[in-house]
Design a protein that fits this description.
The structure is a homodimer. By secondary structure, chain A is of the alpha/beta class. Chain A folds into 2 domains: 23-54 and 300-408, Aspartate Aminotransferase, domain 1 (Alpha-Beta Complex), CATH 3.90.1150.10; 58-294, Type I PLP-dependent aspartate aminotransferase-like (Major domain) (Aspartate Aminotransferase, domain 2, 3-Layer(aba) Sandwich), CATH 3.40.640.10. Chain A is built from 14 helices and 13 strands. Chain A has helices spanning 2-7, 17-21, 31-39, 58-65, 81-95, 110-122, 137-145, 166-172, 195-208, 267-279, 285-294, 300-321, 346-355, 391-408; strands at residues 43-46, 105-108, 128-133, 149-154, 177-183, 211-215, 242-247, 260-263, 327-328, 336-340, 362-365, 367-368, 382-386. In chain A, the strands form 3 sheets. Chain A has a 7-stranded mixed beta sheet with strand order 2-8-7-6-5-3-4, sandwiched between helices. A 4-stranded antiparallel beta sheet of chain A has the order 9-10-13-12. A two-stranded parallel ribbon of chain A has the order 1-11. In chain A, α6 packs across α10 and α12 (300-321) packs parallel to α14. The relative contact order of chain A is 0.17. The interface between A and B is large, with 95 and 96 residues.
Chain lengths: 411, 411
Amino acid sequence: MYGVLYFCRDIMPTISQKGRLMPSSPIRKLAPYAERAKKNGIHVYHLNIGQPDIETPHQFWDAIKNIDRKVLEYSPSDGFEEIKKRYARFFQTRYGLTNLLPEDLLVTTGGSEALMFTLFSILDSDDEIIIPEPLYANYIGFSKSGNINVRPIPTQFENGFALPSIDEFEKVINEKTKAILICNPNNPTGYAYSDSELHRLKEIVLKHNLFLISDEVYRDFIYADNNEYTSIFSFPEIEQNAIIVDSLSKRFSACGARIGMVATKNKEVLQTVLKFAQQRLSPPTVEQLGAIAMFDVEENYFTKVNIEYRKRRDTLVEGMNAIEGVKCHVPGGAFYCIVQLPVKDTDAFCQWMLSDFNYENETVMMAPASGFYTSEEKGKNEVRVAYVLNCNDLKKAIKCLEEGLKVYNSL
Amino acid sequence: MYGVLYFCRDIMPTISQKGRLMPSSPIRKLAPYAERAKKNGIHVYHLNIGQPDIETPHQFWDAIKNIDRKVLEYSPSDGFEEIKKRYARFFQTRYGLTNLLPEDLLVTTGGSEALMFTLFSILDSDDEIIIPEPLYANYIGFSKSGNINVRPIPTQFENGFALPSIDEFEKVINEKTKAILICNPNNPTGYAYSDSELHRLKEIVLKHNLFLISDEVYRDFIYADNNEYTSIFSFPEIEQNAIIVDSLSKRFSACGARIGMVATKNKEVLQTVLKFAQQRLSPPTVEQLGAIAMFDVEENYFTKVNIEYRKRRDTLVEGMNAIEGVKCHVPGGAFYCIVQLPVKDTDAFCQWMLSDFNYENETVMMAPASGFYTSEEKGKNEVRVAYVLNCNDLKKAIKCLEEGLKVYNSL
């Protein structure tokens, strides 16, 4: 009996439809090919993932070395009071958002959890959320987890992925629409929304009574000369509609900390997010204690990091556009851009770069852009590139890509 | 215009039905009353939450003090290879589950996330999961997050909450039923399932082709003289049905670490859980590094902790049963038990104990048991008690409860 049951697959319990249809991460799905390349002695330049190489502020490491506790206890579900205070003060002093108070925010296990709990709190099954496309792939996943439908609004490579007109939004708004989600500056396009675009969004959410979620985890990475940035929290008219999703991962090069937050003046939303937060008990304790100290970082940390990323951006854009058939725009923020390559299918090409190619024992890992679209046909000739390496390595990675394209297109 | 929009609530965007109906945690919802009592100088004995006072193994603290990294990077989505190896080896050597290999498990941000991803991976909207009741309150929350219906199987105070007969299960199994979830030993009842009960579950899942999820986070807390414990991983016949949910929180008194795991020999399930894990990027890095070292704890750590909890259990049970009108069983495992109190509504009573009562400037916080049932009418005269305090404090807490009951019932 044991053998029969064990080998007869059709009487095995089956996974969920949701699980089956859930896309694999476009950022991580090629990881096994990269591992194999590395085992074969090939150096892989990781342009696929937003894992910066910048040092985490020493305050984090110092703080965790000095923890004097005997029991590693839960923190409150919304985070330690001290981190909430430090978080709010940071937004007040550095971003001028004096209306963001400790009681308006709740600490989460990374920006990912912040967004998931927000979606669960405001959207039911079959409700719709509008997101400019291409979009951060995990937005699709979090939405699917809650059976929420993503309504993409196409943005165009040609104009650097600027926000579409109000008309384009109104075409897809219906009685199921509950929210608009933007990532500003944008992952994967690097587009930084202008003040007038934010005003446009404000008008739409007021007119149609929608929530406006702004994922602002890259807001320290703005490359306009005056560092101008408009947060959705700067419009008092929409303070009941506005929800900020944040994370310390990119700001402090502390991706592994998994500390983020949700901020909103809408008490009903925050109370609801808290119920989801209570279910998972608490965010990690040690990482919160390190994070509290990290807010003490010297102001010039941000200036230095910003200058470094601007150099990397310029190196990347110049290098990419110098390759025949390759096109990319100058992104205004974050550390990503969408690059058009002279190939038909970047999924196949990116895999090939890892499994079948090397140039002087080196290769490049990129994220095929199809995973950043809701429809599989889109973005087939695009990749998302994260410029998280120093300029020297970036140049080598670009050279490697150039050689790879030559070989691939002559196969 | 601003004033009108801002103050007119009926044109504000509204939260989700799911969020509105989501119950608050019975363990944490009275926290504001406890805070107020503390601010008034009253000492609160926390019997409401499974936050042990046992010291976390020093290996954890030593390891994080010795971290020599500059960049706090993401870990792999399924956890560092080293923690997966240590986790598997621990299960092999300590529990004798030699079939549990590193590639059969995936590291999660606590047992909470392990369970949520498991549910999302195997159950769709409106699918049903059978759970013996009373049940860990957050099982309801995680299920609601995925629009999954919980089908409770009532267990009885009178027989210590033993597993019901196969008949009882078959009464509620239908074409929507996908899984049975047990917590063994049980939170909130403290019941430890016998070998024959586990065999019964095995027969049911085989006959009806269901998944069997076993939340084994309390498995080091078994008080039978021979420490006998049957894991669902010890039945090869159901290796494609069996999914273990685990956490380091209770085993190592490391609740704040938020490190847990999912283990299953079913590759399709594990691959699907990985897709959800990739969305949230990774479990916390520093806490994983501490956890790796924590597996080196001396074997007598567990013996000492077990002896301590057995003493506490005996102190609690004896003390409670000595109070007029109070009843509780001797729990076989975990560090919880359901206690019947001579009051009509423990929600009101537990709140009153915090807001209106103190005995010699002390009071007790307990979790009203209604939150551990799917129907609001059940468990109204019960509380869940966590015996996570030393025997001395437990005795004082019990005395305090006794005095509280006297006053309350004479009001």
